[in-house]
């Protein structure tokens, strides 16, 4: 049973992250879904590939939620993808929207994690060599 849980965790962590959407015909994924920094608080750098398919033709945009910046916009319903150079120290949410609306059609998060906690610093600020 323990091996089963380990395999299940590997499958879930290794696969692309699929977004929630209100419409089941919208597919929105990010690969990889995690960005791993060495220490807590460090900026994480990762190339993330976003893929999506929208149900009908129209104008859509991929948006970085924290500043509502449109990363790319397109026309049509064909499968699209966009390579983004992620750079951040916190988990970040991305959305698919209609170009002239702010309500998201689908959202997903790129999770920032770290290997080590932030290094401890002495309270006095002095060091002995």
From TrEMBL:
The keyword Signal applies. This is DUF3019 domain-containing protein. InterPro entries: DUF3019. Keywords: Signal. It comes from Shewanella eurypsychrophilus. Pfam families: DUF3019. Residues 1-21 form the signal peptide. It comes from the Bacteria.
């Amino acid at each position: 049973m323990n091996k089963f849980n380990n395999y299940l965790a590997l499958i879930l962590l290794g696969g692309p992250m699929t977004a929630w959407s209100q419409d089941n015909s919208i597919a929105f994924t990010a690969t990889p879904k995690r960005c791993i920094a060495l220490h807590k608080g460090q900026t994480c750098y990762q190339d993330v590939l976003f893929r999506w398919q929208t149900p009908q033709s129209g104008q859509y945009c991929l948006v970085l939620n924290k500043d509502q910046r449109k990363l790319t916009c397109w026309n049509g319903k064909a499968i699209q993808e966009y390579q983004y150079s992620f750079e951040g120290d916190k988990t970040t949410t991305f959305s698919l929207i209609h170009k002239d609306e702010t309500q998201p059609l689908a959202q997903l998060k790129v999770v920032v994690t770290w290997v080590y906690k932030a290094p401890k610093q002495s309270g006095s600020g002095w060091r002995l060599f």
